[in-house]
Design goal:
One of its GO terms (molecular function) is beta-lactamase activity. This is beta-lactamase. Residues 3-232 form the Beta-lactamase class A catalytic domain. It holds the Pfam family Beta-lactamase2. The chain is of the alpha+beta class and 260 residues long. The chain has one domain (2-259): Beta-lactamase, CATH 3.40.710.10. 38% of the residues lie in helices and 19% in strands. A 5-stranded antiparallel β-sheet has the order 2-1-11-10-9, with helices on both faces. Strands 3-8 form a two-stranded antiparallel sheet. The protein has a two-stranded antiparallel ribbon with strand order 4-7. Helix 1 (28-41) runs antiparallel to helix 3 (88-97), helix 1 (28-41) packs across helix 4 and helix 1 crosses helix 5. The longest helix has 18 residues, at 242-259. The radius of gyration is 17 Å and the shape is globular.
């Protein structure tokens, strides 16, 4: 388990094992979003540019072809567009809000791993290492794995909140995408209900068989946000209590931020 928090209201920061690397799972998609926003800011791409939707990718391990499994993807909408095109901004929404793996790999292929790494570093996300897309089983077997630290994820979200050198409209698009996150059982669930109703959460979850993560910005009423990352590791057969644990840790962070 690792937790990192930075309160932009007070400047206070705290971590527990904040530099410990975990399998990033879908939290790596925040780094992909960062690279897309940077490319839009630099006018290398535009959010309304259209990208051909296909389901064929090359492994980072050996170049062998692989596909994203439709029955493992959280979003059928992108699969429904195969053979047609979708705007980059729409793909970003699917990647973050419903964690579409197909949308993710399309954007990773377009942007390139090196551009993703550069944007991550520029935003202050040292500790978030993206080396490939998702569902690349050959790369996984070869030990080529995306990793993240709680400290690095907090850095990414702080970078976005503080501007990251982005035009206001591009930065706001990134925040709006994250505000639209559909999975709310982690960080948001840890904020008391009466407060949660007046709060906003720009965050990204991530889970595979052995990890359950959530990281983002928490905008409580009448104050600047705090950035928090909660990373947890589990035995593959330990399926109960994962989301509740993340929510409980989120509550502990909330209590610390609001009551000291």
């Amino acid at each position: 388990m690792a937790v990192a928090v930075r309160d932009l209201e007070t400047g206070e920061a705290a971590t527990v094992d904040g530099d410990r690397p975990f399998h990033a799972a879908s939290t790596m998609k925040v780094a992909v979003l960062a690279a897309l926003l940077a490319a839009v800011a630099d006018e290398r791409h535009h959010l309304d540019d259209r990208l051909h939707v296909r389901n064929r990718f090359r492994s980072a391990a050996d170049g062998s072809p692989f596909r994203v499994a439709q029955d493992r993807d959280a979003n059928a909408a992108v699969f429904a567009k195969r053979g047609r095109t979708m705007p980059l901004g729409t793909l970003a929404e699917h990647m973050i809000q419903t964690s579409s793996n197909l949308a993710t790999n399309l954007l990773v292929d377009l942007l390139g791993v090196e551009a993703i790494r550069e944007a991550t570093a520029r935003w202050g996300g040292a500790g978030v290492e993206v080396v490939r897309g998702v569902e690349d089983e050959a790369a996984y077997e070869a030990g080529i794995v995306n990793t993240a630290t709680a400290y690095g994820l907090v850095g990414l979200f702080v970078g976005l909140e503080e501007g990251a050198g982005l035009p206001d409209e591009v930065r706001q698009f990134g925040l709006d995408v994250l505000f639209g996150q559909e999975f709310a059982s982690g960080i948001p669930a840890g904020v008391p209900g009466e407060v949660r109703e007046g709060s906003r959460f720009a965050h990204k979850t991530g889970s595979i068989s052995t990890v359950q993560h959530d990281a983002g910005l928490v905008y409580l009423p009448d104050r600047r946000p705090y950035a928090v990352a909660i990373l947890t590791e589990w035995e593959a057969d330990a399926t109960n209590g994962r989301r509740e644990t993340v929510a409980s840790l989120s509550r502990a962070v909330y209590d610390h931020v609001t009551h000291g």
